[in-house]
Specification:
single chain; 418 residues; four-stranded mixed sheet; elongated
Length: 418
């Protein structure tokens, strides 16, 4: 089968035809050149309005468009562009079906590189297909721009809000995910974790769609709580179980570190050395050796031990079915924590009391709403960042996040190359 036949089988470039296909030496490497021409008596298409109209003139030089390589041999489309005399737009360059902008890459080649960039790092794609990193980045950016413009935002009922650290220091990105049962994807990403950042998301979502939200899941960050209460007051705002227990683990770790330091200063036996994960892990997740060490540690009346027991006691909170009974248990637990004379646990109890209604929303949502999907997406984003050794610009970071996590649509092709 000839290359011309194969090319016509995998593309649909009407009203253009292949004039010739030849293997030439372009620079230092062999290249397959496919010369295109317009069908006779075929009117060109205006690149601005898309209407077919009379021609104006033809360029004296041909443009080269990179196509998907064959057997690692570059494939290039060669075509002399025409100008059209559009009655609406004036004199414009014609639109061709293999490219919709001024890029030297065909649309198929952009989607080819973007598809592989979802499986490998951008640097690996550039090395495998012998192209520059910038070309891979531009291809991914093109795919993301097309997907964001084509995606639908209707039917969003549940969202999860979280932040991830970006670069060194206290540099964060706010991420909003759709976490409905039928669709889980990244909806929006913005720099920093302030109230203004989240307000930008709700302006992007629009007042009508914001009014249709039923559930919002987030952590206890005050800026998020205020914005959600203002822009989506009808939604049930759930403080996720993961973030609550994470805050409790941090309190226990503070107690252990302070007590271990004090015991060392007082000359006591270092009982808490190497006990961090003994106190933070759930009993069912402990190894046999860790379980033995924990049982030995529980014999001592230490603040760290009492904090650990309070944490295990709090696990009962999540087993309730009705918000009223869960509220009674929460009130009783907070009272015991305030009487424990352990400052980090007292501070935690005050926080939980202040967020009492938001905590009970977990039961009003029947315990079905969780940030498990959110944390999974965050881990994928961190993996992408590590594979790329970080991103230097906000634009590249957002492009990579949307490309991998947003489940963006793709156009239909005559043939799928990736």
């Amino acid at each position: 089968m000839q290359l011309k036949t194969i090319f016509n089988r995998v593309t649909n470039y009407k009203p253009f035809v292949v004039e010739k296909v030849e293997l030439v030496q372009f620079g230092s490497q062999p290249t397959i050149e496919i010369t295109m021409r317009a069908r006779e008596n075929g009117l060109p298409t205006c690149s601005a309005c898309g209407e077919r109209c009379g021609g104006y003139d033809t360029s004296s030089s041909s443009r080269r468009f990179d196509f998907v390589p064959l057997w690692m041999i570059p494939v290039v489309l060669v075509y002399a562009m025409r100008r059209v005399n559009c009655p609406t737009c004036g004199v414009k360059v014609e639109r061709v079906p293999w490219s919709d902008d001024k890029s030297p890459m065909t649309t198929e080649y952009k989607w080819f590189l973007a598809g592989w960039a979802r499986r490998m790092s951008w640097k690996e794609v550039s090395e495998c297909f012998l192209v520059s990193w910038d070309r891979v980045y531009n291809a991914v950016k093109y795919a993301v721009s097309w997907g964001l413009a084509a995606r639908g935002l209707d039917g969003i009922e549940s969202i999860g809000i979280d932040e991830v650290q970006w670069q060194r220091g206290h540099n964060y990105q706010t991420l909003v995910y759709q976490i409905d049962e039928h669709c889980k994807r990244l909806l929006w990403i913005g720099p920093e974790r302030t109230a203004k950042t989240l307000l930008r998301f709700f302006r992007f979502l629009g007042r009508e769609r914001s009014g249709k939200l039923r559930f919002v899941c987030s952590d206890m960050w005050r800026a998020y709580l205020k914005v959600v209460a203002k822009r989506a007051p009808q939604a049930v705002h759930v403080l996720d179980r993961f973030h609550v227990m994470q805050k409790m683990s941090k309190a226990i770790d503070q107690v252990r570190a302070a007590e271990a330091k004090q015991m060392k200063q007082d000359g006591y036996e270092p009982l808490l050395t190497g006990s961090r994960w003994l106190l933070l892990k759930r009993p069912e997740n402990l190894s046999e050796t860790q379980a033995v060490k924990l049982n030995e540690l529980l014999q001592y009346n230490l603040k760290s031990v009492r904090s650990h027991l309070m944490k295990e006691d709090f696990q009962q909170f999540w087993s309730y079915t009705y918000p009223a009974w869960a509220g009674r248990f929460l009130d009783a637990w907070c009272t015991r924590a305030m009487r424990s004379k352990i400052d980090p646990m007292k501070k935690l109890a005050k926080t939980l009391r202040g967020k009492r209604e938001l905590l009970l929303n977990w039961f009003r949502a029947d315990g079905k709403l969780s940030s498990g999907a959110v944390e999974g997406f965050n881990n994928k984003l961190k993996l992408i960042t590590r594979k790329s050794y970080g991103f230097r610009t906000q634009d590249a970071y957002e492009t990579a996040a949307y490309h991998t996590l947003a489940a963006l649509p793709e156009p239909e092709f005559t043939h799928r190359f990736f």
